[in-house]
Structure formats: structure tokens, C-alpha cells
Design goal:
Layout (H helix, E strand, L loop, with lengths): L3 H30 L2 H35 L9 H7 L2 H46 L3 H4 L23
Helix pairs in contact: 1-2, 1-4, 3-4
Length: 164
């Protein structure tokens, strides 16, 4: 097995993470504009891309394991860090650079998604606060006569005043 497949998988993972980051930027804008319908379709697109990324990662992992097995190195994890130890000298630096670029893209994506999560949480808090203002707590709405004890009806008083 050639290292080419591993390099191609890593490059594809970087590209897919960049695409996901672009979707995340769009998601931020949609959250700010409160465009639920567009957000829903974007989430479907995001889900499809994530499945493709998972397939690419499985292919990279499988190729890494195969490469290590061919060299009688049984490393069950199949990580890029393990692979670098067994690669010829000319392939190490380019693979490490790909790994660093992938980690950079993953970090950028995590930061953007954390911001999106905070925006959504703030939006939910605002909606909850608005709902609380529109529909106050039923316990706080009931009027009780100042002379009554514990909210019980005092003798002679009823909920309906027939003399009114």
C-alpha cells in the first residue's frame, strides 16, 4: 500500500473541514437573522458533509493500518502520529504538515461551533424570558384577601361577590 492514499485522505479531510467551517459561518449568520427554515436546510447539508468526513476518516484509518501491517508494525490505533515513526524520511514532514493543517481547521471549526452554541443558548434564554413575561407564574397571579391566613377563604367572603 502506498502512502499516497493516506496523503489523499488527509488532504480530503482538510478540505471537508474547511467546507464544514464555511457552513458554520453561514449558520452563525442564519442564527443571527433567526432564519429557521434556511437553518434547517443548512443542518441537513451539514449532516451529509459530516457523514462524508466520517467515511474519509475510516478510509484514512484503514489505509494507515494496512500500511503499518505491511511493515510488520502492529499498531491497533492507526494514528498519524504512529505512522510518522515508520514512514521514510521524505514523507514525514509533508504528513506532519497535513496533520497540523487538519488540527488547525478542527480548532477553527470547534471555536465557531462553540460561538454558534452560545448564540443559540442566548436565543433560547431570550425566548424563555419572553414566555415568562407573557405567561406569568399562576401562583403569583392569585389574589388573596389581606386578612386571610394561608390563602383560605375567610368566613363570609367568597370568590364571587353577589352584592356587586
Amino acid at each position: 500500500m502506498s502512502v499516497k492514499v493516506i496523503f489523499e485522505s488527509m488532504a480530503l479531510l482538510i478540505q471537508q473541514h474547511k467546507e464544514l467551517h464555511q457552513l458554520s459561518l453561514k449558520k452563525t449568520d442564519l442564527i443571527k437573522r433567526n432564519d429557521i427554515h434556511q437553518l434547517h436546510s443548512l443542518l441537513k447539508e451539514e449532516s451529509t458533509l459530516i457523514r462524508k468526513m466520517e467515511e474519509t476518516e475510516r478510509a484514512r484509518h484503514k489505509a494507515t493500518l494496512r500500511y503499518l501491517e505491511e511493515r510488520d508494525n502492529n499498531c491497533p490505533e492507526g494514528t498519524v502520529s504512529e505512522l510518522v515513526k515508520y514512514l521514510p524520511e521524505g514523507y514525514r514532514n509533508p504528513l506532519v504538515k497535513l496533520q497540523e493543517n487538519l488540527l488547525l481547521e478542527m480548532t477553527r471549526l470547534r471555536e465557531r461551533e462553540a460561538m454558534n452554541r452560545m448564540l443559540l443558548e442566548d436565543s433560547l434564554h431570550f425566548v424563555q424570558m419572553t414566555m415568562d413575561m407573557i405567561q406569568p407564574d399562576p401562583e403569583a397571579v392569585h389574589y388573596t384577601h389581606p386578612e386571610s391566613k394561608g390563602g383560605e377563604n375567610v368566613k363570609g367572603y367568597s370568590v364571587f361577590d353577589s352584592k356587586a
